[in-house]
TrEMBL record:
This is FAD-binding FR-type domain-containing protein. One of its GO terms (molecular function) is ferric-chelate reductase activity. GO terms for cellular component: plasma membrane. Residues 5-138 form the FAD-binding FR-type domain. GO terms for biological process: copper ion import; intracellular iron ion homeostasis; iron ion transport. It comes from Mucor plumbeus.
Length: 292
């Protein structure tokens, strides 16, 4: 039944065009979240106010963040000062919680959303489902916070489910077992990183545990692009023109005294490779495939 429950109308869907043809979407939550959010969950989004369209023209998107009204009021009021044309409804509807999504404009459904974001249209009608998926790490119900070391692996937009895990670690770091968090992210161009730079800066500033971020830029072919790779971010290790060697990286990140879990959202060949490495190291693994 959860899969069919997609007809919750959201009256505000704010879209911001980012580098790499990526859109950041902030959407008010049209239902109660008393049960909380499990890191790694997703929703179905229909970019139409029609309940019929919501049944057939939907797509799953990872929930990257959930924020309260205080955080978003401050951000959007700053934007409103800079943009006098901001709809008054924007401020009035901020007395709630918000989901944040990052969406890649790649097809007929998402490309128009990017065009809308570029036009700075603030209010868009849409429909979303309740959070879906059972992103537990083990069959017994263990979560990421039950392990001492967390290694997150992503390729391209596969970073999106792990943003909510990083937010969970950020907010619960003094109450959970996690002592070390690592992210290995492969992207084709540096533009994709800049779309998420704000998120990484937030995590770096607020996390007091051991945070290790490695970004591999696999498609760098123009030497001039080297100048666009930031050299002032001490908390991120950039590697260009190559792909990660997961065997060597896992040996480097292996802390024998810690219980370890790996989260992976990537191409199937990468998932198979990492699953074998986790079996070898006796680590738990969460493979994100948007399963209900």
């Amino acid at each position: 039944m959860d899969q069919l429950d997609r007809s919750y109308r959201t009256d505000m869907l704010m879209a911001e065009a980012l580098p790499g043809d990526i859109i950041r979407v902030k959407c008010n939550i049209p239902y109660s979240m008393d049960a909380g959010l499990i890191p790694g969950q997703f929703v179905f989004i229909s970019l139409s106010p029609s309940s019929w369209a919501a049944m057939i023209c939907t797509h799953p998107f990872s929930i990257c963040r959930i924020d309260g009204n205080d955080t978003l009021k401050e951000e959007e009021e700053d934007e409103a000062i800079a943009d006098k044309s901001t709809n008054e409804t924007l401020i009035k509807t901020m007395d709630s919680q918000f989901f944040t999504f990052y969406i890649k404009a790649t097809g007929n459904r998402t490309r128009p959303l990017y065009d809308i974001a570029q036009s700075r249209t603030k209010i868009i009608e849409a429909r979303i489902s309740k959070p879906l998926g059972r992103p537990y790490v083990t069959n017994s119900g263990a979560e990421f916070g039950d392990f001492e070391s967390v290694i997150l692996v992503a390729e391209g937009m596969g970073i999106t489910p792990w943003l909510s895990v990083l937010q969970y670690i950020e907010q619960k770091q003094h109450a959970i077992k996690i002592k070390s968090a690592s992210l290995i992210w492969s992207i084709h161009s540096i533009d994709t990183f800049y779309a998420f730079e704000q998120e990484f800066g937030r995590f770096s500033d607020s996390m007091q545990l051991d945070l290790n971020i490695k970004i591999y830029i696999t498609g760098l072919s123009d030497p001039e692009e080297n100048y666009s790779i930031p050299d002032n971010l001490a908390y991120i290790d950039f590697t260009t023109s190559c792909r990660p060697n997961y065997h060597d990286l896992f040996q480097e990140l292996n802390r024998q005294e810690y219980t370890t879990v790996v989260g992976v959202c990537a191409h199937e060949s990468t998932i198979v490779k990492l699953n074998n490495l986790c079996l070898y190291n006796s680590w738990a693994i969460r493979k994100e495939r948007f399963e209900l």
